[in-house]
Amino acid sequence: MHSKRSHHSINSKKVVSALLVSMVALSSGTAAFAAETTSPVTNQVVTTSSSVFSDVKSGFFAEKHIYKLAAQGILLGDKGLFRPNDGVTQQEAITMAIRFMNIQDQMNSGPVITWPTNFTVGNYFKPYVTLAFQKKLLDTKLVTDDAKSKTAWGEKKANREWIAELLVRAIGKEADAASSANKATTFADNSKISASKLGFVNAAIEMGLTKGVEGNRFDPLGSVTRGQLATFFSRGEALMDTKYANANEGIVTAVSDKSISLFVNGSVHSYSLNNTTSYYTSDSETKIPLTDVKLYSKVMVIENSGKAVYVEVTDPKEQLENIETTFERLFPGNSIGVSNNTAFASYTYDNNTLFQDVNGNKIEPKDLTAGSQIVIKRENFTANKSLVMVQVKTGVVNKSGTGTLETVESNTKTVTIKNALGTTESYKWDDRLIVSYQKEILSPAELKNGSAIKYTIQNNIIQSIEVTQAVERTLRGSIYEVGTNGTTLTYKRDGGALEVKLLSDKPEIVIQGIDKPLLSDLIGDKTAGDQVELTLDAKELVTKIVVLNRQMEQKPSSTVVSYDAKSKLLTVLDANKKPFVFTLDDKTKLIYNSSTPTLTGMESLLTSNRRINVSYIGNRALSLEVVYKYDGTITAIDTASRKITLQGSGDQSITVPYSNPTIEMYGKSNVSMSDVKIGSSVSLVLSNNQDTVQSILMKSVIQFELVSVDTAANRIIVKSDGSTNQLYLDKAVIIGDSGQSLKISDLQAGQILNITLSGNTAANVQNIKLLIGQVLTADTATSSVTVKDYNGSTEVFKINGALKILRAGSINTNLSSLVATDRVEIRKDVDGTTIIKVLNLVTRDFWKYDSSTREFFVKRQYTTENNRYVLAPNAYIHQGDTTLLVQSLKENDNIVLYLNNDVIVEVRKP
Predict the structure, then answer these.
(1) Rounded Cα distance, 133 and 115, in Å
(2) How many Å apart are CA 260 and CA 203, to the nearest integer?
(3) Tens digits of per-residue pLDDT, 732-768?
(4) Alpha helices of 706-820 — where are they, by DSSP H?
(5) Which of 94, 346, 493, 895 could potentially form a cystine with 477 if both were Cys, beta carbons 3.0 to 4.6 Å apart?
(6) Is 895:902 a contact under the CB 8 Å cutoff?
(7) 433 Cβ contact list (under 8 Å, min separation 6)
């Protein structure tokens, strides 16, 4: 039956915060810290996602260390907060130390430890403290003394000298502490440092883990804050060689605003970047921009699910040895022969070595031409000294490749090609050029931009162009089989042999009568598969499948007579009590109240008189559904006889009795039958014997703003009308703004989603297109708005149906009220209404900008007005078409601000 997992507001969850955090990266490009919390009922660890710590402000002294250790899973926040100024308890500090040492996998595996009498820690922390005893991080005699305190040992606040000892022990520098145990420090309060801790304090100071406080004091009994402890542990990492599973250090081989690639131990690792990735250097605690992360510098990346959460430049110098030489020839065994004057040398390359031509385009080793001047770049931090790159500086290009035609200039005899890697290259042609398509000779003028081609280059001149696919084409046939991995389609044309085509990543599927069909809805059969029209792109990938005809028949509202598990024969009576026999096989689509249906799981349900729906070809069952719910619109409610009548699909009228069903309606608690109205769209979930309604799930469609995505838990955080909630998407179909199928990892914070809910469960999620930019024209004749977005692209937005224009608190429905230069945000509401929000405009004189808080200040025109705004990370700052840096603005510059929800999205300098 329906899921009992709670989908209510995350603010209603009562949880007790634990201490450590792990990093969760979102498919849309954002990252969030996940707070690990402990249920007061079950004492089980649960995870709730939140945005990056809101109470760790940019420029905070421990900012770097907090985010670094949080990304490594050593530190933890609580509901989006880190609480950097809160004190740390001893049991919390021990837990941090165990994860800092990366030995938590050794918990519950060592010798039995007898704890001191009256020694008390929280249940969550017991395995960590036990391991601390086993690893000699704790001294039994000292903790016994501490246990005599009125405060439980675990809850006691950790002081500075105790933390100094813990740090030194965790790093394994007890010998350093012992050698300086009798050495007085230079602090004015040296006498207040416990004798047993003096050596550890000296060692911690000597190693630079901690420092004194104001007034030349160490303050040994002073409290330690969470921010301070993060700093201590982070500094300690430099003194250890502990490896964390999600951290890699290597050479930067590629970097853009979307991704970074590292050469690590002979192979390349790539990570995506987004606007929450933090960048630092190992010798500074100040953030750096991504532009300061240079190619071939040494970098440490902490990642989560392929997304770089934290990036630290550990050595800014180029970590490659450059060898400029002359290419001579290739030798067997992946060896490249070169010469320098009279000396000859050879170098071995591997599959990870990148070869580039003079334009930076990837080439194959065989494309190198003898006599070309090349630069060999090889790493110098391993014994292998592996070749990272071989780049042609000057020389002749001889190669073959594939790509897409960008432009063909007949006047200059120049062709521009986007190659298979997506980079652009241009070549000249002469009268020897041969152009062909399907064995037909063409003239260069007949080439079409966008066509897929094969080409050959000799001596820098393009010699041949073979058009392999002209932009787009369609073909018809019958489906034989859809590949089990969803990447191939086998079909047969009339009278032809079987052919196989690769599917694009998200092909559009059109089946009449099925809303948002999936690949699994297609029917493949050697004699009676779906008749389809396939659209193929320039790469011969299937981008669209339209079902033209299908021979499948259906038997809805049938009942089971018998089922034989051995022969897989199912005997049913259809709605007219006519008998039919069907054969089930491993290709039969099974539907019952399970997210992972199996034939074994369904067999127990195929008992006499069980209501089912069957679709079939011949006597082979294509799909078999055990009816566990009815979807439709309520047409009647008979409260006297307690029956509900539903209008289902295909104009089917269904009447089902009810007794005392549970009722779910999103956003409302204590729902009763009085909330169930005629005309309501619902799911009636049946009891196990299918004779009564067990629960009523009221359907609703709500527009939300996406706050964050937790791909691991298949969960999103959304907000609407000021309320923040979490929804699980494990049972939901996710589609993009153009109807393409999406995964949860494709969603990104800030997107607008229309979510169809069945009770409290998300059934369908659609990403709604959001267009922000400057109005160029508003055409009432064509009901369209032309907008130039902040990337410089122009788009025409067609308005179909109702229109609402929101400007300064008022609502207008007349498109002519928009004027050129208006800045707008355009989206569709759940009912199809086009919502155009005109952004607020403020004209003022610039005062200053605080980069640490992203606060943008203007000069007031009157004393009580707001003069402080937040600048969006991707705000468009410009003068005319020239993009400006915010730092280029000077005090008293006259500027125009455009605000979206009080956040600056554009700054225009007249």
Answers:
(1) 9
(2) 38
(3) 888 888 777 788 988 988 889 999 999 999 999 999 8
(4) none
(5) 493
(6) no
(7) 444, 462, 463, 464, 465
